[in-house]
Amino acid sequence: MSEATSKGPLSPELLAKMDAYWRAANYLSVGQIYLKDNPLLERPLTLDDVKPRLLGHWGTTPGLNFLYVHWNRLIRERDLNMMFVIGPGHGGPGLVANTYLEGSYTEIYPNIEQNRDGIKRLFRQFSWPYGIPSHVAPETPGSIHEGGELGYSLLHAYGAAFDNPNLIVACVVGDGEAETGPLATSWHGNKFLNPATDGAVLPILHLNGYKIANPTILARIPHTELEELMRGYGYEPFTLEGDDPAVMHQQAAAVFDTMLDRIAAIQKAAREEGCTERPAWPMLIMRTPKGWTGPKVVDGKPVEGTWRAHQVPLSEIFEKPEHLRQLDEWMRSYKPQELFDEKGKFREELAEIAPKGRLRMGMNAHANGGLLLKPLNVPNFREFAIKIEGRGQKDAESTRSLGQLLHAVMEANKEQKNFRVFGPDETASNRLGDVITGTGKAWMAETLPVDENLSETGRVMEVLSEHMCEGWLEGYLLTGRHGFFNCYEAFIHIIDSMVNQHAKWLKVTRGIPWRKPIASLNYLLSSLVWRQDHNGFSHQDPGFIDHLMNKKADVVRIYLPPDANTLLSVADHCLRSKNYINLIVAGKQPAPQWLPIDEAIAHCTTGLGEWKWASNDEGNPEVVMACCGDVPTLEALAAVCLLREKIPDLRIRVVNVVDLMALQPQSEHPHGLPDEEFDRLFPVGTPVVFAFHGYPWLIHRLTYRRHNHDNIHVRGYKEEGTTTTPFDMCVLNNIDRYQLTLDVITRVPRLAPRVKAAQQWYSEAIQRHHLYVAENGDDLPEIRNWRWPQELTH
Ligand SMILES: Cc1ncc(C[n+]2csc(CCOP(=O)(O)OP(=O)(O)O)c2C)c(N)n1
Ligand SMILES: [Mg+2]
To answer: Ligand 1 within 6 A of 39 CB?
Structure first.
């Protein structure tokens, strides 16, 4: 350390200890990347000590380790409840090292003892088959953010801070990560964070200057421009810059003290003095070398402070003796013998500067949200049920009933403040507006008299960024709360990649006993493909279902309730569930209502079933008319009605599917209907005409192993769309009642003599439809006003 050490808030003794602590974390990080033996370098390093495959990322790690030791001081001195979110999650070794040094790691994984053997195992397990992953993964104590896919750290941090007034979330944003779309917009989280009722987010832009192979944009604009950018986002930027460790420790301590004082003052003003202005929260720009303290030059090329430090700076250990020598020198530069005693235990006088117990970041309960999860109070959803007087006789907007339920959920959890609804500007448009009433929409920015329902304490989170909604909700759930995301169906694809990551997180945590289950991630997709009357083709894409279907069966649930009562039942179930990703697809347009509430509950419980009231198969169907989704259900029932008129003795069974997963065999999904029951519903040899909400191939994929699969014929969305009438959308995609009717006549062997006439009838019906809509701009009255004939109901 240089002589310029002494100026700053740290006593020489604490400074020396903190620097040693940092060296220990760096040493353990390098060791994890390189070594499988000789963990304390008690003998000269040989090739036998080095892992055969050198995997991991060094470049970001020393900066993370530096921050961790400083956060430790702040936690201890100020008794803070602090958790970390690490954007560049590839700095995994650093977080493993730090949670080891503070003792959390050994408490959770007792075989990683605090001695030579423990360190050896710690090194060996990293990026080793059946060991631990290279990133800040679910296995890492204290983590809620894997950070493998860059861009979501600040969103997770804000999500964690909402409704956690005593929590500080320290969030490292990689300067490369900062170039991503989600991260770029997530700075705006500060317009939604209420200093009186929420916690604080402490963003640190880790300006190490480089990504994998390039400089970062933010490192190559003038510093004043970067500060202005941060000011423009509404923050008060602080800067920490340099590479002399001793000087940097003092400066970091000073700048963090100032920033924490700022946070305390902001919270005091809001909480004790009633200040309601949006504060300029502090944020730090930390400009330090990538690969700080690592090899400066390798093979004649600069490494420290460049992109070459990103992964493994000395990568040809087995080919070049010089690399082995440099590794030895590099690791010894941290002076391991000063850090660990002769048994390999981290020296007591250094270990003592870490926080204790639950204050250790590796042990922060918020980062293991299930520990804090309180069950959501879900009022009796039957209260919002639609009364059914005659099947399909009354229209209702299904999502409106859900809005009423969500409002009741909000009210019932007002005290425990652990439920929020998220949506990109569409909550009212999706007819969920009731949830806003009395709750308000969170908003810390300016308000004007024209605004409605904006509130500093609002619990509906609306921002036109699906990324932000998703990221906040994930952060909120991962820290032990509940939530609900509503979105237009077509645009949910924007977060495809984010939900992948969440699904992976859930999958892994299921195998980690100390990670307690968290509330499910619930989606409602509305404004569906079939009813894009205002918007047309750009708004038509039901493919999120297909996307989710690829995830692990024990993580994903997909529901397509055909009416309001089934939607209520499904939503109730989803809101109470844990550790799932629940997708609900339900329309918002006025549509016929089919099932009384008790029937709806029973139907949703089995997931799919015969609608006996609409069938006349006498237990022996000639054809099964299957349907899934609200518009397909309507068209299927209208087709049944046409068929009953035309061929009164045709035995038709109507089967409706709410839970898509029930179609799969039980071997594929726990919701799968047993084969015998499936065969009873869809008897082998009986043709099935299936009207499906989404892309038709999915139904084939789900039923591929079913005995009757060869007889299942699916109609669904086939990427035809425009701004047209609701029924014309069905016609364009061949899912309309005329087509379904023709399909049945074509598929039932006994009706072969009628096929020709039916084809003729079909062409005429479609022609009549085309002419009418082209002329009148609306659907034929017989379509618009169609109702299920009461006399057909059993
Ligand atoms: C969304 C996404 N795109 C690309 C990558 C591949 N990748 C991994 S690390 C990295 C560079 C990250 O740079 P930065 O955020 O500055 O992190 P650091 O310099 O601290 O390593 C890239 C592009 C990724 N992980 N995620
Ligand atoms: Mg970088």
So the answer is: no
